[in-house]
Amino acid sequence: MAGESTPGNLLVPGPAEEKDNASDHLNDDLPRAQIKRIVQRKLAALAGGTGAGTGTGAGASTSRPMTVSTDAVVAFTESATMFVTMLAAAASDVCSETDKKRQTINANDVFKALEELEMPDLNEPLKASLEAFKKEAEEKAKTKKRKAAENTAAAAAAAAAAATAAASPPPVEGAAVPMAVEPVG
Q: How far, in Å, CA of 117 to CA of 33, rounded?
């Protein structure tokens, strides 16, 4: 076998397989622009500024934005892709071990996979992000439901107004229209 097995049943390609999979692998990468944005945002947060600062050490300037070279972006992208692949394989194993019939990986499988990959310190931030995501999705659903109810009420009011207008007879051409006359005084 050309590849070797690693934790999570990931198969690391051997030299012969690397050449065959090179073009396929490039299509599996996460979006580089997104990775670069995440890296720059994190570097800015670590520098303690809202903009991307260069650092907090002696003589460091927070006015210049931190730049990330193209090679570094490629390295971050490859690392993130490998991490996601490794975590997905471990979560798949957890899912299979938990219930042989279940084929859907859930958040608990990912939490357990992080523990098996000896990264349990990532569980708490991940759980917090998951809760924030669920809360945001719930708020969006409530807003959408409220807007739909408002639109339905507005449509019903418009339909009632149209029905009232349709029920009154149209004015006859040349007919006198009663007018209020004010006394001149």
A: 28
Per-residue pLDDT of the chain in tens (185 residues, 90 and over written 9): 444 444 444 444 555 455 555 545 556 778 999 999 999 999 988 887 654 444 444 445 555 677 899 999 999 999 999 999 999 999 999 999 988 888 899 999 999 999 999 999 999 999 999 999 999 999 999 999 998 888 888 888 888 888 777 766 666 676 666 666 677 76
What pTM was estimated for this model as a whole?
0.58
Buried b (16+ CB within 10 A) or exposed e, 137-171: eeeeeeeeeeeeeeeeeeeeeeeeeeeeeeeeeee
How many angstroms separate the CA atoms of 104 and 30, rounded? 22
Q: Specify the amino acid at residue 16.
A: A
